[in-house]
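Budget justification note: compute hours in this period were largely spent on complex prediction jobs such as the one shown. Inputs:
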Amino acid sequence: MTAALASPAVTGGAKTRINDFSIQVATVNGSGSQTANTVLLRAIFQMGVFVSGKNLFPSNIAGLPTWFTIRASAKGYVARKATNEMLILMNPETAKEDIAKADPGALVIYDEPLQLDKLRADLTCFPVPFQKLVTASCPEPKLHKLVKNMIYVGVAARILGVDMEEAKKAIAKQLKGKAKAVELNQNAALAGYDWAMENLPDQDHIRVVRDNKTQGLIIVDGNEACALGAMFAGVTVVGWYPITPASSLVETFIEYAEEYRKDPKTGKSNVAIVQMEDELASAGVVLAAGWAGARSMTSTAGPGISLMSEFIGLGYYVEAPGVFFNVARTGPSTGLPTRTQQSDIEMCAKASHGDTLHINLYPGNMEECFQFSYDAFDLAERFQTPIFVVTDLDLGMQNWSSKPFTYPDKPFDRGKVLNQQQLAEIKDWGRYKDVDGDGICYRTLPGTPGGKGAYFTRGSGHNDYALYSEKPEDYVSVVNRLRKKYETAKSYVPGPVFRNLGSDKGILAFGSSDPAVVEAQDTLAEQGVKTDYLRLRALPFTAEVDAFVKAKQVVYVVEQNRDGQMANLLREFYPEHATKFKNVLHYDGLAIDAKCIVDQITAFEQK
Amino acid sequence: MSTATPSAPTNRLGMTKQDYVGSKSTLCAGCGHDSITGQIINAAFESSIEGYRVAKYSGIGCSSKTPAYFLNQGWGFNSVHGRMPAIATGASLANRSLINIGVSGDGDSMSIGMGQFVHAVRRNVPMIYIIEDNGVYGLTKGQFSATADKGSHLKSGAVNNLPPIDPCTLAIELGCGFVARSFSGNPKQLNAILKAAFAYEGTSVIDIISPCVTFNNHDASTRSYKHVKDHDFPLHDLGFIQYSEVEDVEIAAGETEIVTFPDGSKVAIKAIHEGYDPTDRFSASKAIHESMHKGEFLTGLLYINPQNAPLPEVLNLVDEPLVSLPESAVKPGPEVLAAIMETLK
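Corresponding output:
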């Protein structure tokens, strides 16, 4: 019997940060550290503590530095925190730099031979003989590199007061019951824990105390949530091309489709998934499948949207449905493909040549990633147009805790599609006739029998009957109707959500900025600056956005790009209020934190 | 159904040829593309194709306008330059009961759309892929395309210094199971090829030399009507017998080779060019290369392998068109979501 199951003797002083700290783990990518970090995160989560994880990884397969941040927060703040209370330094390449950047008072776990304890006097150092421990706990030398990281999980568990039973459970869950791997890793974690119990002193800086905040919650990433939304939305054609950070959306979908989208009798697939030769072809597949009556989608990032843009303009103009996920990353060009940004806002709002305005959805949490993905297919078919679901790497690839998703009971909205019987009863059908006055016309699908309803879809000028036309009045009529359709969409897209503290100062943000904004709003209020917060969830801007903009003296537009792209759109659509919008920006590729928002708004307020 | 006079001949569906026409062509008078359009109409009529099941796709260019000129009963999608194959891929997967006809040009398929051509062929998308090949960009007024022969002249006198890309040998290389070349001035051959293509399940690539009467029909062009006529070497006499007629048609024994399609239709190939075997991929490829070297156009069914599985089969899709599946078939129930949520806890 080891000490592993005993309650660790962590002291709790008056200044102890209970369930309120960040840990940063520095490793080398390709070393299996992602598994170890997820185990540590899960173990804390299983103890009922709100926790969030951010993986800061390189665009590389193996050998480059990677950092993982775990934040625990009793208040439920899940944004990245600018300061870290604990560092776990496993990468000799970056250890000295990491130490130099450490926040005063931080605890530092590191590999003993790195000898970091002489570098800073204001840190608490915990050197650990990792190699010795791994050799003792793991009989197979070729696995040493992989299980070495699990040792720091045990060491950290001891220092933080994490129950090792929870860590063991988390290992079993993470390795999905692969018995040998589970045993090997549990042994490694226990070896770290036992060693730490015997050799490391107590600390009263930070600790985990069992709570009940995560009862019934799930841990999921946004790409998985979007994939699930699409699966329940009955997507039947997927054309895609790999790109970070969007690939795992389709890859996760493929895994689920293997299990849940097969015909039970024949075992044949009821969804066609094709990895295309590029994003141009992916967009073509999506729009043509939508045109033919399928629910279709692709998943990409900014460079992919650039390549798809010619097709997206065609889709907008010929009115073909399709769902385009943009899991945004730091651009332009390859930029920082493994870092996050909200820098495709203007591009997705207007993707393509000519006058184009698209419906965009901005999920801000995991439940919305799921629900909006489901809704996007309804919107695409209702409005017969490309729909963008815009997330980013932070939402898409990081671990988030969430309430379990609610089953979408609402039946599919397949939009205005005429079948053979309906066509037979209509005397004068025209593909682009605005019969209902909402800008949305009635379409037919290829293969409809009965001899009526066939039409020729063309990117060239066309009239109400889809016939070729270069007449000025025909062109204007079509593009004006498309604009009317955009207006109609205002009553279909999800409206904003508010967090109002009672103020004539507004904050407007969207997507992954939400947790940092909420935290910043509280901090600002403590400092005497109250704000009302509107979280935007879609384009076009709806009536609630109109009212908010009109009512506020100032609107701080928080977003993760250099140019204030959403603020630019707001200035365009609300020219009479253009001077109210102030840019609060974060664009270094890291997830946005509350401090940068507080600092910028405070600076504006002090002007 | 028929709109023509009662005396007009009808096909197996009771349709007349008039039921297969499209809008009036707006191409130049005498354009080879219009002859091809005429043969598509004839072949569809004679093969008793159900017009409402036809989906017509194109990119951009003179050739890409033509889907408006045939089969008005079918749906058309004139897309963007070089991207017709992606459109055909998406729609054919969405609804596998569609009969897909893509019309492209040499610029659309061999320049801007080369990547899409290659990958559609590689995937064996179920479609007839027609390339109306005149070696020149017509709609932008006479620039060379990638199929123009080295040394060929533009009307302006400009000489093409680059070697041509041949869609047929490329398609054979990519594993295409139906590769044909024809000439807009040889309606009989083209008719038989198109009818066979309608019966073929995967991608049938048909490169049709189609002289541009406005920009590429002068004496120094290797794509002029006269030049092609003089250098057209038909490989064989082709006969196509649809599955429905197989029992009624007697095929003469002897030198005629018969290729049978999965639906029972047959292609009868009577060789003119001795020693050419259209079922042998490597020797076919060699013979085409040799003839091109001599400045000839070998025409006919260059390569045929009717057993290639088309994309929907490769993807193991359900038999019913995906667009016809009810919500209950594609939306898993609440118990599935609940089970997934449990695994994420």
